[in-house]
Design goal:
- This protein is an alpha/beta fold and about 300 residues long.
- The protein is about 40% helix and about 25% strand.
- The protein contains 10 helices and 12 strands.
- The strands form 2 sheets. Strands 3-2-1-4-5-7-6 form a 7-stranded parallel β-sheet, with helices on both faces.
- InterPro entries: Acetaldehyde_dehydrogenase, Acetylaldehyde_DH_C, NAD(P)-bd_dom_sf, Semialdehyde_DH_NAD-bd.
- This is Acetaldehyde dehydrogenase.
- Keywords: Aromatic hydrocarbons catabolism, NAD, Oxidoreductase.
- Belongs to the acetaldehyde dehydrogenase family.
Amino acid sequence: MSNAPRKLKVAILGTGNIGTDLLVKVLRSDWLECTAFVGRSASSPGISKAMSLGVPVSSESIGYIEANPDCCDLVFDATSAADHVRHAPVFERLGKIAVDLTPAKLGVLAVPAVNLEEALGHKNVNMITCGGQASIPIAWALGRTHADIDYIEVVSSIASRSAGPATRRNLDEYIHTTETGIRRFSGCRRAKAILNLNPAEPCINMQTTVLAKVAKPDVEGFTAFLRDVAAQIRRYVPGYEVIVGPLLENGRIVTMVRVRGLGDYLPAYAGNLDIINCAALAMAEEYARNWDRLGHGARG
């Protein structure tokens, strides 16, 4: 008889590119079992993919989870910021852990390499944005090595083809949520986030540049700290790589990273979608590992 722990039952709400790529990742997990893949259109490519993989599907959206509360213990919300505002009270009423992949900013902001243990204390965690997952660990490392940070600017460039309808609808929320995360984790006074959708062919990989104005730059100390943080990120995002710096340029500390995806459901250039899915998966697996310790009761 196997002594392996029973997997945590998870539902994925949202059957677009992000939700479907996340599904492929969940199916590889030793800790998670996808027991419901839920969207709004029974004919969507994501639903077809899930059916081909033998995963239970529904086109009844949040109504399916309300009608079948025992279908899961944790829900990944891969819809939109506006939809998550409507979904969050339902998750709370049903007692479900919510891992929110939209920039709704309702739950605690979570970056696994930075505040995994803190986030476990909450029942709704927000994975911020793809740019936030790429840049906030750098901003956090800056905050740990510099006492006085005036300004941090984050510029992310992604392939236009990797920005689906939900991403484009959420651009304002993307900016606000990324800037909030930068300030929250670095302690800087001012922050600015920029997202460029690059139409180049062949498609580019995701690249994010972080520029910081600090009172007394300590590039050597920051470099050592950043090296450790980047190594932690690569444990759950293998395609994360520091490709420039850190270096001092015109009084600013400049760092650039590149994210190449795993190429599961989406092309490898879509590192922007891969990084937030990998972060959400790492978050959910940590809930599964610590389910009993956290006092969430018997798994459904």
